[in-house]
Design a protein that fits this description.
The protein is α/β, with parallel strands linked by helices. It contains 9 helices and 14 strands. It has an 8-stranded mixed β-sheet, with helices on both faces. Strands 8-7-6-9-11-10 form a 6-stranded mixed β-sheet. Strand 6 and strand 7 form a beta hairpin.
Length: 270
């Protein structure tokens, strides 16, 4: 059996656009051929649009590995401790970052930070993104999964952020299409999309050789290099293409459908 893991933005659908018909056909093909399909995304459960969840996935790796679902139940959950949360927020205040704080009930963001982020999306991506669960609030969530930071106008290289981040945290490129010097994501360093894949495989008794990971961004490197079949979209970053075993077409050119076809062709020819 093959277990497919898909990133969302730039993989299942173009940034800020609807689900292509070829993506629907790809997920249907997996079911018809006896495989299982999962999301593997930086989005939390409440941030998944209905158009995506209605495709009929068997579960997912959410919040970059902090939540793992299978067969309608949570099989793994990791949240920041109070100390981890305060350490991270202190770091962001020292750097002057604006923040979006992802939690189980939504992503908390101050009004002025939301407006600034949206202005960057319009300028650099050309459109806003459909992200349910955004909560305009001055509050700090009681449970925090991960944090998205936004730099000041002059920006900061993501390498500089990574070099100064407190122990226990990692920095990955943002998943919304902004330049990496303007925005990034801070996650707990002991969990990734790759560890989420392992959790799913352990649940089903599958092996890593049966895992197919498909992505487009730098935050997909761990899972694409870890999976038995690692596939990069044609629109993927060069760093992801460098570790992929196969490069398909762009998401807007039936790339996901072709990726699924390719993975099944390998099993049929082996």
């Amino acid at each position: 059996m093959l277990y497919f893991f898909f990133d969302v933005d730039g993989t299942l659908l173009p940034f800020g656009q609807g689900v292509p018909e070829s993506t629907r056909k790809a997920i249907s093909m997996i079911r018809e051929r006896g495989g299982k399909s999962f999301l593997a995304t930086g989005r939390s459960l409440v941030e998944i649009p209905q158009a995506i969840s209605s495709l009929g996935f068997d579960g997912g790796v959410y919040s970059a590995g902090a939540t793992v679902m299978a067969e309608g139940k949570c099989i793994f959950s990791r949240r920041m401790t109070s100390k981890e949360k305060s350490t991270l927020l202190d770091f962001c205040r020292e750097k002057g970052f604006r923040v979006l704080m992802q939690s189980d009930d939504g992503t908390y963001v101050r009004k002025e930070d939301l407006e600034y982020w949206q202005s960057l999306l319009i300028r650099h991506v050309g459109r806003l993104l459909d992200i349910p669960g955004l909560l305009e609030s001055d509050e700090i969530p009681s449970s925090m999964i991960k944090l998205l930071y936004i730099c000041k106008e002059e920006g900061m290289p993501i390498e500089d952020v990574a070099a100064s981040i407190p122990e226990g945290f990692s920095v990955v490129a943002n998943t919304v299409g902004l330049p990496p010097e303007l925005m990034g994501e801070i996650v707990l360093s002991d969990i990734t999309k790759a560890t989420g894949i392992d959790t799913v495989l352990d649940f089903y008794g599958g092996s890593i050789s049966e895992a197919v990971a498909v992505g487009d961004g730098a935050n997909d490197i761990e899972m694409v290099s870890h999976a038995g079949i690692g596939i990069a979209m044609g629109n993927a970053t060069p760093s992801l293409k460098a570790v992929a075993s196969y490069i398909t077409d762009d998401v807007s050119s039936n790339g996901l459908f072709k990726a699924v076809e390719y993975a099944f062709s390998l099993t049929e020819n082996s």
